Amino acid sequence: MLEQIESRVAALRTWMQQSNLDAFIIPHEDEFLGEYIPEHNERLHWISNFTGSAGAVIVTRDKAAIFVDGRYTVQVTKQTPDSIFEYQHLIENPPLTWALSKLEKGSKLGVDPKMHSGAWLANAEEKVADFLELVCVDQNPIDSLWEDRPTPSPEKIRLMGNEWVGQSS
What we know:
Elements (H helix, E strand, L loop, with lengths): L1 H17 L4 E5 L15 H6 L7 E5 L3 E5 L4 H7 L6 E4 L5 H8 L5 E4 L6 H11 L4 E4 L4 H5 L16 H4 L4
Pfam families: Creatinase_N
Organism: Vibrio ishigakensis
Keywords: Aminopeptidase, Hydrolase, Protease
């Protein structure tokens, strides 16, 4: 598994270089911002092997860190190699704080805006504005790098009756 993760991080770094980015953030969330996401959207797991329901990774050109909350401090050490990733606490040293301490002024931090709430993006822009450039990408690089990505499973979609969801939205 170590070689596979090394290869995936290296592929992301190649993409970052081609995209003129100095770092990229990969949250656990998918475009629906749910905590529990389908297998084909487990981008954090793909890049790090971490299977927890909350976390994020930042990959820079020469460093990488994984951020988890207190529920996952043991799990992350068993699933994610410390030879590739620094272990960081998601709340005590959030990803943007870590990025500000590791990247040079003027560096470009890539994000897929579909994986973050509008409030997170606004806060991130404000937090890094004087030091980093937050760059929103059109396509998530993991989606193109993930060669054996599972296909979405339409069987798991369930329609709910109006008695459960209301008359209209």
